[in-house]
User: Fold these one by one.
Assistant:
Number 1:
Amino acid sequence: MHIAQGVFKAANVNKCIQAGGVFIFWVADWFALMNDKMGGDLEKIQIVGKYFIEVWRAAGMDMSRVKFAWAADEITKHADTYWLQALDICRRFTTARIKKCGQIMGRNEASLTAAQILYPIMQCTDIFFLKANVCQLGVDQRKVNMLAREYCDFANIKLKPVILSHHMIYGLTGDPKMSKSKPDSAIFMEDTPEDVRRKIQQAYCPRTPETKANVEKSEEETLQLVEDPLMNPCLDYLKNIIFAYPNSTFTTGDGRVYTSFATTRDDFIAGVLSEESLKEGLINAVNALLQPVRDHFNTDSNAKEILEMVKLFKKDDHPAPPKSFRRLTLFAESENLGAVFAPVLSARFKLSSVLSVLANLKSALKSHSTVVLWLPDWRSFVLNSLTDVKLIDAAATLFVEALQALAPELLSRVLVLRESEAMLKDPGNYWISVINVGRKFSVNRVQQIDEANDQVFHKSLHVL
């Protein structure tokens, strides 16, 4: 965890609480799985989530009005509500629109997996599932937040969520933002005093803006909430981390005390404050903020154990895959099972479709002891075949009754199963299996399943 996720986040949360809010942390374990963190090992991901909570507690976050909700637990407990909301969001947007949100994962559109296309859909769903009035996230998350506001227009939701974006702290190496792949671009919460000194002493620290003639800004450079041609990371730390707390002061390396960021910045640019003195003061100030975190992980046995496990995870460049593959299991693996998929459910269906399903069922019964007729009600909803789940449920009933009328004896030997019914029998394992399958295939590969249809979510469900 870098200092922006730790100290800066704690300061922002405290401001929200002081304004009268209740802050809900959505501990996004399933989202980390979608983004292929920790080699896709959910147990490791959840340990890292516990580490984050310990850091925030030690960094001075006011926990009196903070609630932590784990995505895996809450989504599984309220699967019907959550996934119907997600499906409704899916059917309102094209894949191309969803792919534009790829920045929230630090990915470009061309490299997205099918699991990663679910990420913005689910993050958008979270806002409505949690009944959030305000979304307090980094400005790099703005695209998915705007997706949520767009959805409100489609769904006739009058009170749109307020987007309260915070600044992205610059990388110490001169990059527009910190990067975990560049360790020297950021201070991390577990850094030693020596690490902090080394990183800040070698940090990029200009007094005047660099001249960039006719160079188009990178996407990361457009993340600035306020125009800042200087982009000095040392001053950025000073403004957004050191002076983030009320009544803060800053003591330079030569003992001068400043009570405002603006005065410190002006003196540095004017040459009154030297780079060496600015950096020395910043080293001391950052170490003072990190010391309570270091002490907590040294003295609290539970926090210390969690940190040791996280350090081991970081050292493992090629983590082993999870010990077991989690998936929905409706039938015994030894069972001789056959499945026939009904067509997308709609208000009208052709006699040829009914006859085709009957022929497939008859054929399957010849070689399988158990045959399932799978009714794709949720996929039909995603595809907008009918506008309401109740209508789709009625269409499913009508389709089965047509089969029953034409071949009652045959249908008596078939298990009819609605997609939604099956998913909700064990939603945790089902959706983890969706995510795991999605991690293995690119969006482009999944789209090849049915090139005439744009819905990646529908195709992912069909693969499962």
Number 2:
Amino acid sequence: MHIEMDLKLSQTALNDRLPGGDGGPPVFLDEFHLSPLKVHISFSPEILIDTSQINVEEDTLSLYLRSFGIGVTNISDAILKLAYYDATGQLVTITQLQDRVVKHYIHQTLTQLYAVVFGLDIIGNPYSLAQNIKAGTKDLFYEPYQGIVQGPREFAEGVVIGVNSFLRHSVGGLVGAASKITRSVGKGLAKLTFDEGYQKQRNRRMAQKPSHIGEGLARGGKSLLMGVYHGVSGIVLKPKEGAQQEGVEGFFKGVGKGLVGAVTRPLGGISDMITYTIDGIHHHTQVDDKIDYMRHPRYIQPDKILRPYNTTQSEGKYFLHQVARPRAWTDEYYHHSVLSDKSVFLLTDMKCLMLQFDDMVNEWKVDWYHHYNDVVKLPVLLGGEEEAVGIAFTALMDPNAGVSRFFKNRRKKERMVILPSSISAKLLHTEFLDRLD
């Protein structure tokens, strides 16, 4: 067969055998090889629908379905394994070579689209689940086999390692799949609120996964309560916010948002509670690769000048970052005083804050705060100049925080901060007065 083809080619003019077209001069490929590719695909749409452009003629059901669909089309680490491309002893133009390579990878991608479809979080990412079970099953047989080659003791250790790996991958995969489903449903429900601020706050909160079951239950319970609170309060607040921004039309839009939020936010809270609980269980099935830092990250002051490492400033910036990031605050650190292992008083360039560590959710939270403009009575030392034990001041409550938003007149609140030593009390008093000047 090959001899006949060679004889036929030998009787053909060389010019007739050259590739034609506009692909440039032909090149001879003695050996052309492209190695296999492994592509990891993760996709999370963050398209915000501008509700100001919505009119009464628009199909409401279509709008809600589109919003929910955007929220649930997450893909987490879908893997495409594209085979190698090889060309040997060929005479082609560059254009022809490009076309062949493109067609090769398109064919490889189309034959593995199932990995993308089964990588959707809303169906539990069954592709990832299958990969986990596959890895656990491999260890279940491979580890004992490796041990029996070396001896009885190593065989027993291999059995333990293999069984542990199989259970960890199988249970972890199943729990992780359930977590992905509830997380996607919660994100879809958050999209239905059409509240950009609420969606961003939820994304930041859900990015912090619990480290144990107790923390998962605590975070889940908090999410449920916050969902119910925001759902009920939104019935009153959303029409008010809409009227302030867009007048009468904004008022009626706010009524719609409030009524929808009264349903979607509690449901989202339930979904997030289930997600947090499952994540707490899932953490125990994973190998703990947590890295413990030897020191807090360096604090770079606003002038961006690199200075020697300062332990106190870096610690204070760490405390501020823990509470500022979830709230999207842009405060700059100024001074802080550690009151106890679970209590810190912090001064920024805009406000003073009292921080408390919550053991249930394993994070720092803001107990209360005041902007400097709201301080109506300057701080004074408690116990006198010589035996100061703390400071006291009076400030107006934030009208947008907590239950204060329901009161017409701003309430005054007397605050006392007790410090561990007289020196720290005097220093805090001085720094506080400097910020108020």
